[in-house]
């Protein structure tokens, strides 16, 4: 009988792709999420629509489960995370989910938990220079994330490591760096920068203007979801606990990201930089540790990932317009 796996947050973007990957590898998969997948039906063997902030739900979904992939969180793009307007909800919801999942897993005898942390937990003081951000795993302390989202991620990393030390549950922790791709949120305020750029370019009139928050000189790296799933599975099957970065080392300014999307969409626009939440000045994945421990490298560069994502978002815009009409 194949191993039984639970994916918390499997109705979301990364979780949905991970469920497809696990099913393709022959595992029996249960999903628990607040909502079903938005863009395609889940291939999960069992899909439970439930709120993981409820400990009763958590105890129910971990029954007979060997491995847990914990990706459920209250999150979004800069417009959701960095305004400060959602801090209490982000901290309460995500911390409660992780406390519940950790304890329910202990009680159920779960063998291994994967936890998806975030690069947002790295100290702001190491990310003030957009050209030379420092995001090696050992730079996490002294801690000083720039958002409550990052503080919660740091707390939950320590929570799972404590359960490993005190209760013997194996844990694997990854710090995601801006994962993007098809079937991700692309509108509504919770979308990440690549999706927002693709939407803006695809829906703009020829010769129009594209608004970008801040001066656009802030830097980031972005990893396609296919590569993310590859790395997660490699980490889970390894003897390495982490925390480890899962991201790309291909750093780019936000203005240049916009220009790259314009090239892919074959639609030159003028850029208008406006006030708005931007997060840290610079962030780039440091892949030295994952290269050493797992021998992992991304297969897709940023352009290749965007060439897959842009047509998908353009298609969603057309579908939306057709629905309105």
From TrEMBL:
Record-linked InterPro entries: Epimerase_deHydtase, NAD(P)-bd_dom_sf
Pfam families in UniProt: Epimerase (PF01370)
Keyword NAD: yes
Domain of life: Bacteria
Gene3D superfamilies (alphabetical): NAD(P)-binding Rossmann-like Domain (3.40.50.720), UDP-galactose 4-epimerase, domain 1 (3.90.25.10)
Keywords assigned by UniProt, alphabetized: NAD
Domain NAD-dependent epimerase/dehydratase per the UniProt entry, residue ranges: 5-247
Protein's name according to its UniProt entry: NAD-dependent epimerase/dehydratase
């Amino acid at each position: 009988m194949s191993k039984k796996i639970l994916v918390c947050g499997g109705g979301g973007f990364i979780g949905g792709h991970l469920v497809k990957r696990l099913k393709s590898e022959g595992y029996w998969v249960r999903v628990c999420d607040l909502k079903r997948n938005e863009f395609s039906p889940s291939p999960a063997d069992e899909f439970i629509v439930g709120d993981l902030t409820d400990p009763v739900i958590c105890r129910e979904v971990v029954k007979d489960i060997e491995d847990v992939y914990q990706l459920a969180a209250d999150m979004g793009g800069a417009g959701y995370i960095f305004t400060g307007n959602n801090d209490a909800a982000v901290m309460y919801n995500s911390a409660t989910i992780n406390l519940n999942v950790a304890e329910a897993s202990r009680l159920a005898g779960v063998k291994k938990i994967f936890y998806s942390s975030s690069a947002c937990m790295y100290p702001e003081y190491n990310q003030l220079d957009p050209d030379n951000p420092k995001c090696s795993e050992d730079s996490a302390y002294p801690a000083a994330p720039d958002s409550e989202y990052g503080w919660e991620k740091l707390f939950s990393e320590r929570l799972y490591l404590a359960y490993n030390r005190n209760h013997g549950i194996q844990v694997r922790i990854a710090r995601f760096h801006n994962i993007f791709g098809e079937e991700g949120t692309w509108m509504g305020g919770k979308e990440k920068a690549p999706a927002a750029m693709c939407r803006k370019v695809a829906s703009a009139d020829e010769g129009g203007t594209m608004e970008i928050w801040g001066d656009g000189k802030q830097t980031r790296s972005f990893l396609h979801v296919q590569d993310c799933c590859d790395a997660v599975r490699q980490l889970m099957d390894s003897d390495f606990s982490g925390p480890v970065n899962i991201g790309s080392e291909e750093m780019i300014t936000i203005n240049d990201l916009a220009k790259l999307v314009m090239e892919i969409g074959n639609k030159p626009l003028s850029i208008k930089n406006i006030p708005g939440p931007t997060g840290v000045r610079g962030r780039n994945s440091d892949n030295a540790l994952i290269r050493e421990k797992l021998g992992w490298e991304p297969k897709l560069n940023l352009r290749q990932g965007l060439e897959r994502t842009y047509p998908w978002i353009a298609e969603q815009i057309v579908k939306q317009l057709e629905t309105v009409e």
